[in-house]
Structures are given as structure tokens and as C-alpha cells.
Design brief:
By secondary structure, the protein is an all-alpha fold. The chain contains 3 helices and no strands. The longest helix has 22 residues.
Length: 88
């Protein structure tokens, strides 16, 4: 167990920190705590959809299940990309 790496450390290094560095470069902003906050927010949004598949079955969505999955993914993607683009 000496080489055991907690899953939270793996997620941080592989997802959150990597995205924070990419955001830092894209936004030309070296404020790492801010970039880590943005990264965690983005990753959290993506993960919350993956963890809660019942979202796609909400009866109020006037879409079939397959269409609602595509719609949700596209909506989340557009929201994240627009948020990054307009962040200052």
C-alpha cells in the first residue's frame, strides 16, 4: 500500500490541475488558485451529469431520452465554453 494514491489525488492531477493549466494558458492568467476554482467548477458540472443519469429522464423535457442526452451534453458544453470565453 506504500504506492497507493488516493483517487482524489489522481483526479486532481489528471483532471483539475491539467484543466487549470490549460485555462491559465488560454486566458493568459497565471492566478493558479482562480484557475483551479474554474477547473473544479467545470469538472464538477460535467461529473454531476454523469453521476445523475435520471436527469435525462425528466418528464418535463419535451425530448426523447436519446435526444435529451445530446441536448444536455451540448447545452453543458456551450455553457462551459461561453463561460470560459467571457471570463476576465
Amino acid at each position: 500500500m506504500d504506492n497507493y494514491t488516493p483517487i482524489t489525488d489522481v483526479v486532481f492531477q489528471k483532471a483539475e490541475y491539467s484543466l487549470a493549466r490549460l485555462l491559465s494558458i488560454y486566458l493568459d492568467n497565471e492566478d493558479l488558485p482562480k484557475m483551479l476554482t474554474l477547473s473544479r467548477s467545470i469538472n464538477g458540472g460535467i461529473i454531476s451529469f454523469a453521476e445523475h443519469p435520471l436527469f435525462y429522464n425528466i418528464e418535463t423535457l419535451p425530448l426523447k431520452e436519446a435526444e435529451s442526452k445530446t441536448w444536455a451534453k451540448e447545452t453543458l458544453r456551450d455553457y462551459i465554453l461561453n463561460s470560459i470565453k467571457t471570463y476576465q
